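Protocol step 4 of 6: structure prediction from sequence.
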Amino acid sequence: MPTPLPNSAAMDALVEELLTKDVYIVDYLPRTVPQNSGGQYFDVEYHLLNSPRYTALKDKFSSVIFKLMCYYRVCIPWDGGWVDQPNPELIDHIIAEIMDCHSGTLTCLFPDELALLVFDWDCLNLSIYHPSAEMQQLLAPIAASEGLFFRAAET
């Protein structure tokens, strides 16, 4: 049986604390594109986020979240409170709404792991704050299974 959720203020405070911890990403690209690369990163990013191709990217990110949900308890803020172990349909609905509106963030808290995953509509990556060594070992093959890359964020 899932552990009861503390009040929203405590959950919000935990999220704020985790946002200050080490961050890893599940990324569309294997490394950060240097500013002087001569490539077309911003054109590609704009196209991927604003063309019909965004659905493929959305599906990859959703699948990463779903796979993590198989291993870890997850909680999300929704409708003014926190939902413990949301059903996959709700996750799909939230991500689709975020992508369709070109606005928003989905925060997935893994309270038993003290880890946080953040999905922002305007990014080609998922940010994972404070993942344990075990979660990191799991994220690498999960990302690869979706054609994505798992690595420490570059600051």
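Step 5 (inspection) to follow. Strands lie at 23-27, 75-78, 81-84, 105-110, 115-120, 125-129, 149-152.
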